[in-house]
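Risk register update: the risk of archive-format incompatibility is retired. Evidence:
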Amino acid sequence: MKYAIWLVRLIFAGWMIPAGLNHFVPLFPQPQGSGLSGEVFKALFDSHLFDMVKAVELVAGLSVLTGFYTPLMLVVCMPVSFCVFWWDNPLSGWGSSANKFGQAVLLCNCLLCLAYWKSYRSMFALRAKPRSLGAPEPAAAAQPARA
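Archived output:
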């Protein structure tokens, strides 16, 4: 399982790093989209939100590759992954050649979030109580001894 997670991390980083870097340092032509996807691209580009999207892709790819703040950056990148999926599938057409890329990006992000589930588990506490800053971690509940 460890090697499968590494493979997904490499695939995800191998997509995100060049895609994000390409906006700041042209490596290959940026797809403009057509129809609805072209209109979304134009709106993102004209509003300069595309700069933010590409920065998130680049930082998330580097984070997943290096392991620094990976669970945090996977959550930060989830809206971008979903938008890439949405752009490549419903907006470009389910039969387009790009749909596999959009599906792969979202699938990799979801699989990696599942792999880091232990990092997120405490966020889903039924009745969470805030702690003051600098307070020590609460003592873990004693585990019953196995017979």
